[in-house]
Structure formats: structure tokens, C-alpha cells
Amino acid sequence: MELLDRSTCYRAFQCHDARFDGHVFVGVTSTGIYCRPVCPARPPKFENCRFFASAAAAQGAGFRPCLRCRPEIAPDIGSWRGTANTVSRALHLIAEGALDEDEGGVEGLAERLGVGGRQLRRLFQHHLGASPVAVAQTRRVLFAKQLLHDTRLPMAQVALAAGFGSVRRFNETFRALFDRSPSALRRKSGGDTSARDGVTLILAYRPPYDWPGMLAALSERATAGLEWVEGDTWHRRLDLEGMQGSVAVSHRSERGAVAATIRFPSVKSLPAIVARVRRVFDLGADIATIGNHLARDPALAPLIARRPGLRAPGEWEHDTQCTAIDGEAPAGWRPWHAYATQHLLVARRAHAHG
After folding, report:
1. CB atoms within 10 A of CB 153
2. Cα atoms in the 13 Å half-sphere on the side-chain side of 96
3. Measuring CA to CA, which of 73, 108, 153, 197 is 20 to 30 A from 86?
4. Backbone phi and psi for residue 273, each to the nearest 5 degrees, phi listed first
5. Residue 332: its pLDDT value, please?
């Protein structure tokens, strides 16, 4: 499993370093809880820490998610990180529910990726420290936990949206993991609402983030009636599986996140919609590392210093910027030259207007 040394990981937790958020999780043996590097709690003793490359690996080792730092809203691992392209593509498919319906299970997923099931399991274990099934199960639990915290969807709807086969299975999983019912984890009071009424989910990123730059890029490609920017918010109409809805995304800079308000008739489509929002807004990128690397170029260095956090927007349906591998581009992936291109485009635009 690819992971930095223990002392480096521990320093990241001591400093609450957001650059490591989503890349490493700490399991605290004295409490049985696993946390993000940005957890506001006082760092545990070094000897009580176990470090993991994914939430699934921590959960598989018997740790439960922290209720304070909420691992369910940690930024996703970016494909730039060095994970195999096959793993990156698999994570994208899992995020959209590839293993929730269990259509062929891991073997079916592996076939879609052009590898064998054994090879896929080996790659997941090497890069994430957990199996594809464990990753899917952890995503399911964490997404359900986020819906419990952030929405007023009825319990049955939360279970359905997160990919649980039944409310009974949903309740059993939460009792086993948290030693309490799902309803006991819900913080908000009030009556139930529906996905059609709208749910707002917080999706974190690793700072910095140039929000005006992202909106400018999205405005340039906006299609009337389908995708548009109004004020500081991006809007898109949804048409999935014959159903219509909408999504609006705004910036929450104080939380290092975007807020996606989704209105759609089917809660089962929520994970796929969230995955597409993450892709469009490039939320998985380690933009600080990318910027440091590109700044070695003397022509790019002043541009990156001027616009730290400028990202490369992705496509809703498919990333046309991606370089195809075996005829298929790794969804959500950005080659680093895409960021250089974005900086050059912004500089050219500023020069033309200046």
C-alpha cells in the first residue's frame, strides 16, 4: 500500500495539514475512531496511531468514522496521485454505483475495465489497502452518513440513495459500525423532505481554489438552457434515465468546499450526480502539488503565483481533455498540461482585456 512514512503522516495530523486530506487517514487505537488530517480534535499520541491510504482500509481494520471531522466529506483521491489508471477508472465507476447493483460484482467491474478480477483486487490492495468491495461498502456508509447529517431525507430514501438493498441492512450496518441507529446520528430536526424538493451536499477540496477562475471557464462553455452561471453560482439542468432535475453549485470558501444543491426525482441517482459535480469542479486535484511542479517552468511561475488554485474544469458527460488509454479516457483525470493550458488561457484573456 502506497503511503508516506509514519512520522510524516503524524506531522500532517499535528499541523492539521489540508494538503493531506483524503490522502491519509489515522486510526486511533485508544478510541477505535479514524480521522482526517484536518480533524479539530487534539492529535492522539504517536504510539496510538495507525495510518491508512483510504477510509476503506481504516474501516476494514475495525475503526469507525469520526463524528467531528466527518471522513465522508473528505476530498476524493485524485487520479494524478499515482494510482494505476485502472484503479482511477474503477473508483469512478464505483462512485457512480457500479457495485451497488452487484451486476457481476467485482468480476463484472473488472471486465468493464479490461482486466481480470484477481488483478483488480491486487491493484486496489496495493494502492488503497482495501478491496473493491470494501471501497464500495465504505463509500456507501459514508454517503449515507452525509445524507443523515446534511439532509432531511426519510431513512428509507437515505438507504436507497446510498445503495443499500434494504432499510434492514442499512440499520444493521450502522448499528454494527456506530453502535447506534442511523436516526441517532441525525443532527437536524424537522419534517422529512424529498430529493425533488432539493438536497444540499458539501463536497470538500484541497485548497487553494480559484473560484472566479473556475466560473469564468465554465461561463465560456455554457450552453443556453442547459448549463449557465448566474452570479457566483453554476447551474445545470439534469436529464438522466428519462427524468429531469437540476443542480446548482456555489462556493463555501470558509469550509474549503463547494455546496451542491440537487433537485431530482430519484434518490438512486444522487451518487452519480455527485460524482459528475466532483469531476466538473476538479475537486480531487492536489492543486498545491501541481502548482509547485508547474512553477518550475519560468514562464508559468508568475502565472501560478498570480492565480493560485486555478483548476481545469471537467466535462459533465465525458472528459474530452483526457488522453485515452486503450481507447478509453480515465474519467475525472487531468493531465498536468491541462492546468498549464488553463493558466495560459487566463493570462491571454487578461492581456486581451488589459
Report:
1. 23
2. 17
3. 73
4. -65, -45
5. 44
State in Å, rounded, how far the first CA of the chain is from the last one: 50
CA distance 138 to 142: 6
Question: Is 193 a domain residue?
Answer: no
Highest mean pLDDT among 58-62, 104-108, 345-349: 58-62
Query: Domain limits at 328?
Result: 199-353
The C-alpha cell of 92 is what?
469512478
Domain containing 219 — which CATH number?
3.30.310.20
Is 27 within a domain? yes
Q: Is 349 found in the same domain as 205?
A: yes
The reply to whether 248 and 348 lie within a common domain is yes
- The rounded distance, in Å, linking the Cα atoms of 104 and 122 is 18
3-state secondary structure the chain: CCCCCHHHHHHHHHCCCHHHCCCCEEEECCCCEEECCCCCCCCCCHHHEEEECCHHHHHHCCCEECCCCCHHHCCCCCHHHCCCHHHHHHHHHHHCCCCCCCCCHHHHHHHHHCCCHHHHHHHHHHHHCCCHHHHHHHHHHHHHHHHHHHCCCCHHHHHHHCCCCCHHHHHHHHHHHHCCCHHHHCCCCCCCCCCCCCEEEEEECCCCCCHHHHHHHHHHHCECCCEEEECCEEEEEEEECCEEEEEEEEEEHHHCEEEEEEECCCHHHHHHHHHHHHHHCCCCCCHHHHHHHHCCCCCCHHHHHHCCCCCCCCCCCCCCCCCCECCECCCCCCCHHHHHHHHHHHHHHHHHHC
Q: Is residue 241 part of a domain?
A: yes
Question: pLDDT band at residue 335, thresholds of 50, 70 and 90?
Answer: low
What is the count of structural domains for the chain? 3
Considering the domain architecture, whether residues 38 and 127 belong to the same structural domain is answered as no
